[in-house]
Design goal:
Blueprint (H helix, E strand, L loop, with lengths): L10 H14 L3 H26 L5 H8 L3 H10 L8 H8 L4
Helix pairs in contact: 1-2, 2-3, 3-4
Length: about 100
């Protein structure tokens, strides 16, 4: 079930939404839903990376937070030059229940 949420936007943001709406031939609501979905994915990834960097989450748990496969999360760590700080304990945690 969908829920209506009100948000105040400044004029520049509204103008950009209207421009995207015209370019994509979509309603402003559809554009906003697309933007929100992309933003939520980015936010989850950034949160997962932060938790991994701070050793608050294993690589597997961080990948689950980001809602991406573990291999993709590992690729992102390499792309961003983030140290894996990964040992046997973390490996066991990530594979727990798979065997």
């Amino acid at each position: 079930m969908a829920e209506t949420v009100s948000v105040r936007l400044d004029k520049d943001d509204v103008k950009e939404i209207e421009e995207l709406s015209k370019l994509e031939k979509k309603s402003k609501s559809d554009v906003l839903r697309d933007v929100l979905e992309l933003g939520l994915k980015d936010k989850k990834l950034e949160l997962a990376l932060e938790k991994f960097r701070n050793k608050e989450a294993s690589m597997g748990k961080a990948a689950r937070i980001a809602e991406v496969p573990l291999t993709q999360f590992m690729d992102i760590l390499v792309e961003r030059n983030i140290d894996f700080h990964y040992g046997i304990k973390e490996l066991e945690e990530d594979f727990e229940g798979l065997i």
